[in-house]
Amino acid sequence: MNSIYFSSTLMWSASLPELFQAARTLGARGIEFWAQQFESRDYCAEECLRLIEEYQIEAFVHSKTWDLNFASMNRCIREASIREIKSSIDLAGRLHAPEITVHPPRESLCGELPLYRELAYRGLEELLLYARGKNVDVSLEVMEKIPKEMMTSRRQVQELTRDLYPEFFYTVDVAHCDDAAEVKDFLLKLPRISKLHISNRRGAKYHTPLSDGDFSFPELWPVLQGSHLPMVVEGLDRSKEYTMLYENMNYIQTIKRRV
């Protein structure tokens, strides 16, 4: 049985108690907390730990990603990005989260891929070592196929991580895949997948509601369910109604009744 989590970004404006109350109401096994939201909303780690215990909710942490690039040609940007991701790892350690989701870095300019791969490798090596010291696993997310992204396929995962390939875990995001066949390929052939991010996409618009997009989740669900992996429902909702979260979770229940 797959555990269903949801991303805290689906309740961007919520307080910590509201997040946990929603998880209980919706029957979610856990929450993936975005570190940037944790900081921006001024959440308290001690309060979060208390609520984790009270509600018996599991937690993942998603590293800060926005405006960061630890393979940037700009040394100051690289250093700042590493610091911010390390602070996210610190948060995961404080919350006793088993792993942190990290986005791989990108090219600054297309055309010098060997340079950026080398910078990426050095950063990955440093982050892996730091996370080990905090007893936190690192799960690298396979990204969408847009310019400058360096890790969008199984082959690129191996090219970027080199000898560190078996040391990381990996997060497969359904919305980043081209089609159901690619989702199946990842599940069959990419080792050490630790979880799935689930949302839909409509062409180049990513992370639409599960019911709205190019993927037919009723058809895909048996494949996802067969993976026995935790699934994190993703999206961004800055309103205070949290409509996307409730619609997604209700839609999952509808799919489960069909299959």
UniProtKB/TrEMBL annotation:
This is Sugar phosphate isomerase/epimerase. It comes from the Bacteria. GO terms for molecular function: isomerase activity. It holds the Pfam family AP_endonuc_2. Residues 20-227 form the Xylose isomerase-like TIM barrel domain. SUPFAM superfamilies: Xylose isomerase-like. PANTHER family: HYDROXYPYRUVATE ISOMERASE. The keyword Isomerase applies. Keywords: Isomerase. It comes from Faecalispora sporosphaeroides. The keyword Isomerase applies.
